[in-house]
Amino acid sequence: MRLLSLALLAPLAQGFLPAPAAPRPFTQRAPLHMSAPPKTRKAPVFDEVCETTGVTLTRFMIEVAFLNPEMQELPALFSGISTACKAISDMVKRSQLTGLVGYADGGGSINVQGEEQKTLDIMTNDVLKRALRFTGKLGVLASEEEDTPVGVPLNPKDVVFDETSKYTAVFDPLDGSSNVDAGIPTGTIFGIFEHDDECEIAEGGSMTEDELLCLQNTLKPGTDLIASGYCLYSSSCFFVVTLGAGVYGFTLDENIGEFVLTHPNIKVPETSKIYSFNEANMPQWDVPMRETVEKWRLGTGASGNSFTSRYIGSMVGDVHRTLLYGGVFGYPSDKKNVNGKLRLLYEGAPMSFLMEQAGGLSTDGRGRVMEIVPKEVHQRVPIIMGSKKDVQEVIDAYAKSK
Ligand code: FDP
């Protein structure tokens, strides 16, 4: 396999990637042919084993691959991701003892988005890259901590599974990392797309038009995801995943070192009494958003429920609670952040896929987050997701305000 180095890619990518998104209207939604599932994306079949608590993630994935031959390469990739999650969970848990705290290089290490990187941001990105590289199933990978998508070179000496079809993985290695040193929950978010096998990017020289197109092919809407999930590092380490047919939650049993199915077929309650936003931004929100939350506070919204507020400020923790207890989590557009704060490719789309698969909704106020085609890797998107009826109330408020 030919190699693509990050150093080579960065300047070239700057040349072809569009300039940062303009203020609203900013969304390009997938045309119908892109939102329809491609032929390899038929919803996987599960049998009763996959609905039975106590089944390990390894066994679950073997069953899935057995029942869905087109997914037979996923278990190897999931083995890499879950191993990385175990390593990261341990790293985060022990960080106060091992000194993996604070900012990288004592401060001043800035990622492409201008955010200062924590030591753990860099280390967890590395752990994931190594774990995925050795599965032999990955063509391209995009991460919050990388400037642009990077090729995943295989060392010919590495023992790998046979390399027939490959995937593109997008991930946020340590979401919520600004809180990590205070022991607040953090998480790893991932999304997996099919990668065009014809798409190889050569090392050296300038990129051909075809190669540039290949690279742009990594910018896909959430409707093209074949799997997404997260690991939550908290009281337990959870691994929650969708393959496009429901949402399955596993808990790490540290005694045996395996993720064990504890939450089969998670369904988010249809309505709730919880909202989860950074309320300090409320005066800056769009009017429909502000008015809906005001009503929830007063108990005069569609459900008549008086809402309470729960905001960790760590997306994986807030989404996990929302999936289990119901509620509405979001980071809406505001005057300062017209496109919200959360990143579309590796936060918004994977989490929206999970939320929709659990029976909830995810919107930017005007339409499905899943249908937005990213124009650049680190594009931001406003997000309001959670219990179906409550999120619908927000969508209706935006529709009325047109
Ligand atoms: P963090 O910056 O700590 O990584 O997307 C990043 C994120 O956390 C989300 O996990 C979280 O929901 C959000 O930012 C919190 O933003 P505010 O601090 O502005 O509330």
From TrEMBL:
It is an enzyme of class 3 (hydrolase). Pfam families: FBPase, FBPase_C. Residues 1-15 form the signal peptide. Pathway: Carbohydrate biosynthesis. The keyword Transcription does not apply. Residues 56-264 form the Fructose-1-6-bisphosphatase class I N-terminal domain. The keyword Kinase does not apply. Residues 268-398 form the Fructose-1-6-bisphosphatase class 1 C-terminal domain. Its EC number is 3.1.3.11. Keywords: Carbohydrate metabolism, Hydrolase, Magnesium, Metal-binding, Signal. Gene3D superfamilies: 3.40.190.80, Fructose-1,6-Bisphosphatase, subunit A, domain 1. Its cofactor is Mg(2+). It catalyses: beta-D-fructose 1,6-bisphosphate + H2O = beta-D-fructose 6-phosphate + phosphate. Belongs to the FBPase class 1 family. Homotetramer. This is fructose-bisphosphatase. It comes from Tetraparma gracilis.
